[in-house]
């Protein structure tokens, strides 16, 4: 009996041993699977963490946040150059300093419309977080290339009329900024005080600038309200400015120039031709008075740029949003009179104007 039962016991023992090894193997497999899943999860989590960290600005107070601003200027002339200088000062005022925490990418179209699109694309591709356009054509070029990156307009007289924003108080998109709208009525009123015998004003502007066309209509209404007759002279290209000014000088008592980049860029030529017949020029910008204009009530160009820089910094830092930030407009301008030019033209400056004006000297041609 003992001999017959032994195989049974051995078989039972063997079965239990194999069953134990099978369970142990299964547990080992389960542990291996769990370890693999945990390792994979940790790998994904760590990778995601580092990716997010690379995408976000540094939050360590000892590690400076880096900013990139793209700046597109339509053309070089004293007025726009002053605006650009003001932009840099405004950014610096808010702690954005080139070479430290700010990369300022600068492009200048030099009045070549065909270059503005390419330059806008370059500024976007170089990682600009905020874009600033100086003058209407520059802003239009930037706006055509992006609806996501904030665009801050600098020196745009009529952003609504130019199709850039929906409303001055609530722009409603990725654009807002600073308007350089000039006090046209005040400018022409000063002209009347300096030139009491004047009967006809000639408005000189570029037919290629939307900004100027809007101002011409406003100037016509203001001039007619002051009892002046109005003649308009549209310049199709910069090469024709001298010839057109020669024609104007024989037909008008003085020349009025609205905010116009094409004419501003050619101001020395305008002054040269107008001085030949001693025809006074009333421009809209203080720097153009310095170049030989008689007088203006103008907004300081540096201040336009300074306000633009402050607004760009606020948008960049996330303190404001373009869609809900009103376009900044100036309440009043400064009276600027060129004494040298007045003497050249034989014009006596009324004492009442001298008391309130900034008197400067111009360039005699």
UniProtKB/TrEMBL annotation:
Pfam families named in the record: ABC_sub_bind (PF04392)
Coiled-coil features, chain-numbered ranges: none
Record-annotated membrane-spanning stretches: 32-50
Keyword Transmembrane: yes
Stored InterPro entries: ABC_SBP_TrpX-like, ABC_transpt-TYRBP-like, Peripla_BP_I
Gene3D superfamilies for this protein: 3.40.50.2300
Keywords: Membrane, Transmembrane, Transmembrane helix
Domain of life: Bacteria
PANTHER family with a match to the protein in the record: ABC TRANSPORTER, SUBSTRATE-BINDING LIPOPROTEIN, ABC TRANSPORTER, SUBSTRATE-BINDING LIPOPROTEIN-RELATED
Name of the protein: ABC transporter substrate-binding protein
């Amino acid at each position: 009996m003992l001999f017959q039962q032994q195989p049974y016991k051995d078989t039972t023992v063997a079965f239990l041993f194999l069953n134990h090894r099978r369970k142990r193997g299964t547990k080992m497999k389960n542990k291996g699977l769990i370890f693999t899943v945990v390792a994979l999860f940790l790998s994904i989590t760590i990778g995601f963490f580092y990716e997010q960290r690379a995408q976000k600005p540094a939050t360590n107070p000892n590690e400076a946040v880096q900013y990139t601003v793209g700046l597109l200027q339509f053309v070089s002339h004293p007025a726009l150059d002053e605006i650009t200088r003001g932009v840099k000062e405004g950014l610096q005022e808010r702690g954005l300093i080139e070479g430290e925490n700010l990369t300022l990418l600068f492009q200048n179209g030099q009045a070549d419309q065909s270059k503005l699109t390419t330059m806008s694309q370059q500024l976007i591709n170089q990682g600009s977080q905020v874009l600033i356009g100086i003058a209407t054509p520059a802003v239009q070029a930037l706006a055509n290339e992006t609806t996501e990156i904030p665009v801050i307009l600098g020196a745009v007289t009529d952003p609504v009329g130019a199709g850039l924003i929906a409303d001055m108080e609530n722009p409603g998109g990725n654009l807002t900024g600073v308007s350089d709208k000039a006090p046209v009525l005040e400018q022409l009123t000063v002209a009347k005080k300096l030139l009491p015998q004047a009967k006809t004003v000639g408005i000189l502007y570029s037919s290629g600038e939307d900004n100027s066309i809007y101002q011409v209509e406003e100037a016509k209404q203001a001039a007619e309200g002051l009892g002046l007759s109005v003649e308009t002279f549209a310049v199709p290209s910069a090469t024709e400015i001298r010839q057109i000014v020669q024609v104007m000088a024989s037909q008008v008592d003085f020349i009025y120039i609205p905010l116009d980049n094409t004419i501003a860029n050619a101001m020395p030529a305008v002054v040269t031709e107008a001085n030949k017949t001693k025809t006074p020029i009333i421009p809209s910008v203080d720097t153009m008075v310095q170049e030989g204009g008689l007088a203006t009530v103008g907004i300081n160009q540096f201040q336009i740029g300074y306000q633009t820089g402050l607004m760009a910094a606020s948008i960049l830092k996330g303190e404001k949003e373009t869609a809900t930030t009103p376009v900044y407009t100036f309440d009043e301008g400064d009276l600027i009179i060129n004494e040298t030019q007045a003497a050249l033209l034989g014009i006596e400056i009324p004492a009442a104007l001298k008391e309130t004006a900034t008197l400067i000297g111009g360039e005699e041609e």
